[in-house]
Design brief:
- This protein has a single domain, classed as Isochorismatase-like (Rossmann fold, 3-Layer(aba) Sandwich).
- The strands form two sheets. Strands 5-2-1-6-7-8 form a six-stranded parallel beta sheet. A two-stranded antiparallel sheet has the order 3-4.
- The mean pLDDT is 96.
- The longest helix has 14 residues, at 156-169.
- The protein is built from four helices and eight strands; from the N terminus they run E-H-E-E-E-E-H-E-H-E-H-E.
- Helices cover 20% and strands 21% of the residues.
């Protein structure tokens, strides 16, 4: 029996399934690699698949090492707002920035690289952390007639959540596939993220409901 396929008005957004966020990576999300087989299956249901990729220059402002005396997971105030400091991860052209080797990406329509500006972080696939600089993804999807989005990937409480909230703000009917995501969960960040997503209008489903 053939797999169900969503039409041209739907898209699957696969967020940051990269080596740095998987076991053994510099910023490993617990169980991060567990989403890969599920995302590979889900992607077969969609005509439109978009991948996002953290793509930081060395010395990025979000790295703890760029702030002498600071430690990873501390928060600092930057010109664009509050910023969590991270271990160095997803540096451009590094193995850590590569997609997980078992992620099947051949049929992806677009790869959105984010966090490229050395002075601004970017969790969201749509708008950078300064909340002013747009990635162009919303326009791309709108030009293709996409109205409904499903999100999966890493990490639920940061890049997935910010992307989902911004997708709703851009007018897309947005759903997060919860079992196709994994979270970092710093000091309750996961429950906070789900609350913020719900308040923004993001739907929440499991993969067997997609």
């Amino acid at each position: 029996m053939p797999l169900k396929r969503y039409g041209a008005d739907c898209a699957l957004i696969v967020v940051d399934v990269q080596n740095s966020f998987c076991p053994g990576g510099a910023l490993a999300v617990p169980g991060g690699d567990e989403v890969v087989p599920l995302i590979n299956h889900l992607s077969l249901l969609f005509e439109n698949v978009v991948l996002t990729q953290d793509w930081h220059p060395a010395g990025h402002i979000s790295f703890a090492g760029s702030h002498p005396g600071s430690q990873p997971f501390q928060s600092v105030e930057l010109p664009y707002g509050r910023q969590t400091l991270w271990p160095e991860h997803c540096v451009q052209d590094s193995v850590g920035a590569d997609f997980h080797p078992k992620l099947e990406i051949q049929h992806a329509r677009l790869i959105v690289r984010k966090g490229c500006n050395p002075l601004v972080d970017s969790y969201s696939a749509f708008v950078e952390a300064d909340r002013a600089t747009r990635t162009g993804l919303a326009g791309y999807l709108q030009e293709r007639g996409v109205k409904r989005l499903w999100l999966a990937g890493l990490a639920t409480d940061f890049c997935v959540a910010w992307s989902a909230i911004d997708a709703c703000a851009a007018g897309f009917d947005t759903t997060v596939i919860e079992d196709a995501c994994r979270a970092i969960d710093i000091d309750g960040s996961l429950s906070d993220a789900w609350l913020q997503m719900r308040q923004a209008g993001v739907k929440r489903l499991r993969s067997d409901e997609v």
